[in-house]
Amino acid sequence: MKKLLAAAGLAALVFAEFTALSVMTAEPANAAVCARGYRGAACAGPRGAVAVGRPRVYRPVRVYRRW
Questions:
Q1: Which of 12, 14, 45, 52 could connect to 32 by a Cys-Cys bridge, CB 3.0–4.6 Å?
Q2: Rg for the chain, CA atoms, rounded
Q3: Which has more pLDDT, 52 or 30?
Q4: What is the pLDDT of residue 25?
Q5: Please, which residues have CB within 8 angstroms of residue 33's CB and are 6 or more apart in sequence?
Q6: Model pTM?
Q7: Could you tell me if 46 and 60 are in contact, meaning their C-beta atoms sit under 8 angstroms apart?
Q8: Which residues are registered as beta bridge partners of 42?
Q9: Where are the domains of the chain?
Q10: pLDDT of 2-14, one tens digit each?
């Protein structure tokens, strides 16, 4: 029982320290994330998102006529 209480106290202490440090060192998120996929690319940042599709490639159509 003493080991369980010691472990719970240690976990609470670590949690409190982590919470205090994360609150004191919090900064605004200025990150931008970009990804490239099968259909195109997209980027998301603090001011919005942009998506670009890949251009479509059309195969030339050949018509064979018998005269």
A1: 45
A2: 28
A3: 52
A4: 63
A5: 43, 44, 45
A6: 0.36
A7: no
A8: 35, 51
A9: 2-53
A10: 888 888 998 998 8
pLDDT band at 67 (very low <50, low <70, confident <90, very high): low
Per-residue model confidence as pLDDT tens digits over 19-38 = 877 666 656 666 678 888 77
Q: HSE-up of 49 (CA within 13 Å, CB side)?
A: 7
Question: In angstroms, rounded to a whole number, what is the distance separating the alpha carbons of residues 21 and 58?
Answer: 56
Query: Cα separations (Å) of 6 from 10, 13, 20, 25, 67?
Result: 6, 10, 21, 29, 94
Q: What is the C-alpha to C-alpha distance for residues 57 and 52, in angstroms, rounded to an integer?
A: 15
Residues 6+ apart with CB under 8 A from 45: 31, 32, 33
Widest CA span in the chain: 98
Give CA–CA dist 19/30, Å, rounded: 21
